[in-house]
Structures are given as structure tokens and as C-alpha cells.
Specification:
Blueprint: E1 12-18, H1 23-38, E2 47-52, H2 58-73, H3 81-87, E3 89-93, H4 101-109, E4 115-121, H5 128-137, E5 146-149, H6 157-170, E6 176-178, H7 186-196, E7 210-218, H8 227-252, H9 261-273, H10 283-286, E8 287-297, E9 300-302, H11 305-309, E10 318-323, E11 335-340, E12 347-354, E13 370-376, E14 380-388, E15 399-405, H12 408-414, H13 425-434, H14 444-464, E16 469-473, H15 479-486
Parallel strand pairs: 1-2, 1-4, 2-3, 4-5, 5-6, 7-11, 8-16
Antiparallel strand pairs: 7-12, 8-9, 8-10, 10-11, 12-13, 13-14, 14-15
Helix pairs in contact: 1-2, 1-3, 1-13, 2-3, 5-6, 6-14, 8-9, 8-14, 9-14
Bound molecules: nicotinamide-adenine-dinucleotide.
Amino acid sequence: MSLSQGKSSSRKPVFVLVGGTGDLAMRMLWPSLAMLLQDGFIDEGLRLVSVAREKVDTEEVRSRVIDALKKRVGKDLEHGTADRLVKGLTHLALDASDPDWGKKLKAELGDIDQLDVVYFLSVSPTLFKPICEQLRTAGLSNAPNRVIIEKPIGRDLDSSKVINDSVGHAFDEARTFRIDHYLGKETVQNLLALRFGNAIFEPLWTSRSIDHVQISISETVGVGDRLGYYDEYGALRDMLQNHLMQLLCLLAMEPPASLQADALRDEKVKVLRSLKPIRADNCFLTTARGQYGQGFAEGHAVAGYLAEKGGPSDTETFVAVKAEIDNWRWAGTPFYLRTGKCLPTRTTEISIQFKAVPHSIFGNEAKANRLVIRLQPEEDIALSLMNKSPGLTSDGMHLTQLDLSLSLDAVFDANGTKKPRRRIAYERLILDALNGNNAQFVRRDEVEAAWMWVDGIVKAWQTSGMKPQPYAAGSNGPTNAQLLLERDGRFWND
Ligand code: NAD
């Protein structure tokens, strides 16, 4: 069953955006739908229903959406796209605490048996349960209707089970789409192409050839107006449990038999279940926690996390973890994961450090190869290779390290072809959900396996009394994060 163009369905497609007036909807979701419409991936027959508690009318929401499109995708927006999008949009002002929420939505939607609905719940996870319950009792959640939910899926294993149970009561697993928007990024998708579309990497993709892997997501901003939420979660739960662990899975998993959703997700979950637990007696050697203090970020003075909060807090704004995968492929090759706020640069980068040549005939001039995959700020891939330094020298041959660039932008530039527009990660994910393809969505057992490992880290910190170490805003994070690698004779690729 599909809502997108070219697929036949006797049911009429509907996209219901619960929280349609919120920040995520305005910055990401409506702009993604507009771009999908403009590029012909969805057709104008797609009915859009915004549902939120704000007492505003359809005209007001349409006008806010048009403003949001101009802000987010203004330079790519063709004349007429915004009008075509909002033409099919209606807004329903409904508070989820209204016991008749489901009935009222049903009255708005019409005969549900004639519809093929995707619900995107862009609201606080505390509302997932009441909303799914209302959808179920109103008869709005039957197949083929589907639901998309966003992180955070809980704050630990137990709370994630409560959310998953309540959603699962209304929508079975095949019709539940848990978004991790990193999975919609072009370069993240390219990891699959790189690993499984090339014969040259796979024989090297083991601990025999790879010394270690680093995955870093660094942000220049502080917590801003998310303080209330963030203080409950911290960097470990907010970023590592989902984005960093998903990247880890894609890098470390065994080759799946196909790109089918369960073939991929079966392999990812095996990685999560092979992670060596972190305990109170080893967390000081395998993790680093930090909290930004006074300093400068993005050219502005930052008062520090505690001053922003106006009280004490043990929440980490930086975390680094040495993840070890106990299986044949990766035993002995650590994956260092790191993320933090108020750092000097906004980057997302994967660095795969190969081992040095077994015997160097060039003295210490031969540096080990490194494959760097950048997701932010630019998306590119570079493989460092040793080359002979060009020219003639009287003291023999010298080496220079050069990058073999796999930058898509560069390839398109060289061909004189127009660069493809950098898509919003949600575009691909919304399109997949409309088409019923959940390969790039997170399955329940993945969420639970990730929480199980992360809960172990939280417990280790609590039992051992390991508190966040302060770091100056604008610095590279706490010194313990440097020591985490230096103890192993390694350095972050900064
Ligand atoms: P927001 O507060 O800006 O918007 C929430 C929306 O839900 C609004 O439309 C509001 O009217 C509606 N709403 C709130 N309470 C309601 C109720 N009782 N009944 C009906 N409607 C209600 O939130 P947001 O930033 O858009 O985030 C939405 C979800 O997405 C959250 O779960 C958040 O954690 C997640 N998320 C947001 C971002 C982001 O960049 N904003 C990123 C990742 C995940």
C-alpha cells in the first residue's frame, strides 16, 4: 500500500501530522513534504491533516507553513510549490487530553476504510500512549495505516518498553516507523554502498586490518531552550543511545543478505547484542563524561551549564565511550564514540584507522591509511594513501600522504553537472514511510538492545560515583576524553 506517486491503491492517501504547528514540523516535516511534492515523489492527491492543540484555523496554519518553507528551503522552492502543498492541508485544533480526540479526528478524516493513513506523531513521547489509545479505540489504527514516532523512545529500557507497548497495542511492528533521522542522511546511506557495493573494502573490514574506529558528533551550541528536557537526558541518552549507536551498527554489522528491512535490522541488532558491557569497575577507563563551563562558543560568551540551569546538575553535556564488540570480526578493535555541546566545530565524522604496514621500507614516513567519512558540515569521503613525493631528491625517496576523495560534490563539479540538492534527511524517511518501507527505521529490538547497553553505563556511573568533568565552552571537551585514547596510544582525529 502506498501513498506516493506511481503506486496503485484504491484507498485515498492521507498524511496526518500530529503536532503540525510545532518546531520539528515547521523546520523539517512540512519542508520535506514540499520538496517531495516539488520533485514528483508524492502527488497532489496526498491529503495533509495537521492536528495540534493550538486553537488556530486552517488559513493560519497554511500561512505559517508557507513562511516556514521560505525560511527552510526558500532557495530551492519553485514558484507554486508552497501553494500546491497547502492546498491539500487542513488543520484540526484538538488537545490530545480531550477524551473525544479520536472520534473528532475520525469525523474529520471521513470513511477510514477508504483511506491509507500515515500518522506522524511530532509531539512529546508522553502523548504517544494516549494518542495511540485513541486511534485504536476510534478504529483509526487498523492496517494499512501506519505510525511514525521520533526519539526519545524512552529514557531507559523500562520506559522505552512502556512507549513501545502502548504504540504496539495500536500498530503492529511492521506498521511502526521509529525515526532516527541520521538514517535518512545521504552519507549514512552511502555507508551501505561503500561497504557492500565495493569488493575492495570487505576483506579489510575486520580487526586484522583496522586498528580502531572513531565516530564523533560535535555541536557548537549549548542546550539553549531545551534545558528542561536535556537535564533529564544528557548527552548519553540524547545522542549516543540513538545516532551514534546506529552509525556504529552500520559500520560494524555483517553483510546482510539483502536490503530488505529485516535482513538489515537483524544484522544491526546482532552488533548491539555483542557490545561488551561497561561496569562500575571499568567505566573510568572506558568512558569520559563532561559538562561545559564558562567559555566562548560560536563567538559568544557562555555562562556554563550550571549557570544556565541556575542550580546543581550531574547531567553530562559531553560523553565519550570506548565500545568493544565481542565477536570474531571486531575483537581487539575498539570503536570510540564521542558527542558533546559547546565544542569548537560542528562536525559529524567517522574515522576508520587502518593498521600500519607490517614492515616499513620507508622508515617512519609511511603513515597508516585512514578512511574519513564526513556527514557534517560537508558530506564527503576521503581515503588517505601514501604517495611518493613528486620530483627528484638527492637523499632518496620520500613519501607524502594524499587523500583520494570520494566527494560526490567534487564528482558532479568535475562533470560540469548541477550538484544534487542536499536533501533534508526527513525527505527520504517520510517517502519510505509513505511507501511502507521500514528498512531505514529502527526496530523495537534495536531500541531495546541499545538501551540495555546504555542503562549499564548509567548504572556504572551511579555505582562508581563518576561525575561529569568540567570543560571550558569552546574547548575540545574534558581531558578525560583525550586520556581515553591516549591510554591506548591513540589520538582523536581533530
Ligand atoms: P514543539 O513543542 O515545538 O511542538 C509540539 C507540537 O505538539 C505543537 O504543535 C503543539 O501544539 C502540539 N501539542 C503539544 N501538546 C499537545 C496536546 N496535549 N495535544 C495536542 N497537541 C499538542 O515540539 P517539537 O520540537 O516540534 O518536537 C516534537 C517531537 O519531536 C518531540 O517528541 C521531540 O522530542 C521530537 N524531536 C524534535 C526535534 C526538533 O528539532 N525540534 C528533534 C528531534 C526530535
